What we know:
The complex is a heterotrimer. By secondary structure, chain B is mainly α.
Amino acid sequence: MQSSAARKMTAEGWLEPPPVxxxxxxxxxxxxxxxxxxxxxxxxxxxxxxxxFVGYFVFRTYFPEAFEQAGRHLSLFWGTANTLVLLTSSLTxxxxxxxxEHGKNRNxxxxxxxxxxxxxxxLCIKGIEYHDKFVELALPGKFFHFNEIxxxxxxxxxxxxxxxxxxxxxHVIVGMSLLTWVAVRCWRKEFSxxxxxxxENAGLYWHLVDLVWIFLYPLLYLV
Amino acid sequence: xxxxxxxxALPPSEPVFPKKSYLNDGTTIRSWLLTHDxxxxxxxxxxxxxxxxxxGGIFAMVIxxxxxxxxxxxxxxxxxxxMFTLHGLxxxxxxxxxxxxxxxxxxxxxxxxxxxxxxxxxxxxTSWYIYMFGSALMLWGLITGGADTGWTFYAPYSTTTTTNxxxxxxxxxxxxxxxxxxxxxxxxxxxxxRAPGVTWFKMPLFIWAVYATSxxxxxxxxxxxxxxxLVSAEHTFGFGFFDPARGGxxxxxxxxxxxxxxxxxxxxxxxxxxxxxxxxxxxARKNIFGYKMIAMSSLGIAFVGFFAWxxxxxxxGQSPFDAGAFAAISMLxxxxxxxxxxxxxxxxxxxxxxxxxxxxxxxxxxxxxxxxGMTGVALATVSLDVHWQDTYFVVAHFHFIMVGxxxxxxxAALHYWFPKMFGRKYPENWALLxxxxxxxxxxxxxxPQFLLGNAGMPRRYYEYxxxxxxxxxxxxxxxxxxxxxxxxIAIYLAISxxxxxxxxxxxxxxxxxxxxxxxxxxxxxxxxxxxxxxGPHEYQDVPEExxxxxxxx
Amino acid sequence: MxxxxxxxxxxxxxxxxxxxxxxxLHYFVITxxxxxxxxxxxxxxxxxxxxxxxxxxxxxPFIAPTAMFEVLAISVPLAFFLLWFAIGFRDFVKVSSxxxxxxxxxxxxxxxxxxxxxxxxxxSLGVLHVPANRPVRLLITSRDVIHSFFVPAFRxxxxxxxxxxxxxxxxxxxxxxxxxxxxEYCGAQHSKMWGEVVVMAPEAFDEWIKEQQxxxxxRQDVLADEIGQxxxxxxxTQWGKQVAVAQGCLRCHNVDTREPSTGPSWxxxxxxxxxLTDGREIIADEAYLTESMMEPTVKVxxxxxxxxxxxxxxxSGPEAAAIVEYIKSLxxxxxxxxxxxxxx
Lengths: 223, 553, 344
């Protein structure tokens, strides 16, 4: 969150690193703190999703047939496409991190842009899937009128589905915003071997978003 | 420029109020609202929490007044149901959860570690804004015809009630973020910003307590966040996650809710225990009896506390096996608490106890923690809980811990650290009087409630069978004393802010690290990185031998 | 001694076998607690006095606990806690395990009243009659939100959950009237959701229930205000038919003729005197019909196999009630067509 305006361009082609905040004894200390903080935050996100996974397992135990039927009615094509999209975007983010760590800001910028675009693709595909659900009335709770699912528990499946994927999509949007902000800073050549923590942390967030999907995908689409 | 303090004898001259401190380093409103200084943020939280305490207290008085007679007294049923919901939500989320960590933790954590600020000062300020916004949203929801579900908002009542619970739930959700951010900040600060010489086992015990609390905050609060979202979604859209008519499961709500809310009580009590460890050493001028045990038992409580939530579901139809497992685990928490109690009492052995207001609060704390804790173990004894669940016995138990232990800790902290935070002393006589009123009033309020629970009076009862009248009247009388005590405290503390006697750097003669900086401290806390060569709770040296700390006062 | 402790602790009278167990453990716990707390308090107060500060700059010795101290500090409380846990858990298992010969009563919590139905007997509102000295098992459910059935004099309590049955049992020991209180907040009239258990001498109870069964029909109306319940799709009867179709009930039960199929026909079933495989004769009232859905193999109609699947957890309380309503509507003097005609 340091402004780049006051920092001068170095000979290597990136801005000099921002000053270490006054209460840290060194940049090393600062980086350690940022990393620890990020991992703790990711831990909280895992626990947030854990609750909905618990819900999934509980209701799957109550309504195994409905969950199976509903799972089969999800578009395996779009689900797999989304998985590939997110996995690739994680790859580009990781590579961007590598480049930022080496001060290659422009490369990092383009890779991040690719990730953001793929995030957008993910959301579009999700949009298509949601649209289909609305059309066939495969909706949660009292809005459920999807006759293809004959076993009891159909409405509950869609509560879990929409809640889990909706919460996840929200996190995709947040992730995209973080990546955008970091990408802008890449464009401004802010990162160097001495200072690349924002890229790393935004990347970690994106990897978490990906990881949550890696669990959602098989549970919803494959089993 | 203040007179230099020598370390060869206690200063004979009158203490001088520092010309420059965090209090006057910038006097505009903007400098307060945009501060990065952890001390100012602590005070911002104090303002919010005190407001919550008084608001929650008003609701409590309305409840107690209504319960003076078996039938309707001053309000009607729906209002009463809103009152106890309001009382619970405001007290827990606006006062109890944040008060000790976010006020005293924020203020003293960095100083006690020899740091200049917390790890992420801007996130610290952001957490305060989130807290204020969430509280405002919650209060707005509660005022505009909001919740009558009780603070536990059990489904399916909460998902089908006609009252507008969504803003209330979203308010709670938002406040949760503040809690998570504070906890996260503290954990990172403790790991990365300790000054040289402050090893893990040289840290003040208050820090250990806050550390354990922060772990719970970070891990448990997200689950509450999810639960509030699920309930509001179900209430608004009829999703049916917790509604059996749509295939949902109301017990799932209880599990998800209590998975947070049980550890939440340790978020409330652990910091208070940390305060006691600090204060007892200072007022008894004695080393803590069993430093490692107290530190480790804080972590133990945090850890075991995560696995005990099912004791709220003993009568919800869960299997005896589950009930037994949760009961056994719940009792373990009692063991950790017992260790602490024995160690605190042991601290007094061969000490040099000064009977001051903080000490009075320690007495109150010990007394209430022992009784509250023992009744907790009794409640965990499953067969007994069948009778007590959802009765006033439970209400009395948790008020013994929440008000008895936590608020005693809060008041002890407030009085002990008042000189450090504001540079002035409070009037000891008034403080002792208020402490006496509070301890007396508290007993008078809540001991009848144990008996009411035994007699079978359920919770959240607007009207009650006549045979419960006398105990209710007794409880209300006690509550008035309690309220009176709080009002007296508010008055003399407010007056002391401006007119209290100048305190000087260390009026208590405490060995806590925070007493090495001036009262009130400068914004930067320390000019140079301090080196602490003593432990924070060691008093065996003659007081003149204060350790040298590498900074100029 | 028991009486003294009971009065000191403001406990209600002990009117069940469980109450005695609970109170005895309670006394044990409370006595040890009080003694231990008093001991700690006295030690503390002794220290306050003996170790009060005498000089301003008094130094103190550095004292660390011995290993023995910590071991005792942990093991003594732990021993007591484990003992209490063991006794409490044993008693809890006892109260969760009804004896097989217990008399069943269906309890239904509903905002804001308690309804009771005997499997072979009457239904009643607000008053539960039970015999003394015989075990009674309560099968408790809720119509709407969570309630909790609490009889302080018996020391028993169990939540009433919508969509499932919970159970608890007791053996009342003294004739008398004991209050029932709802102990789970359930809305505006939560604090008036009271009832009464009337414990009668066993012979008096047998008399009473025979009386009730004679005047049976007029009491059934008490449960008939199901119409008050709002169902999500149309009238309760129509909804019941939809649920019955969706759940596959009609694969085994005829609804347009009285012909038996895999299971008995539903036409004219309600209130029919039905003979069971074990020779008993029961009236097919709401309680029996609901029980047949939740525990279908317990009371099988004579001449049929115990093939019916269990719908516990699959049918919510309102759904089960809707099916019951639908069954009630199936009379041979009205055609099935006319009933289901309005929908689809």
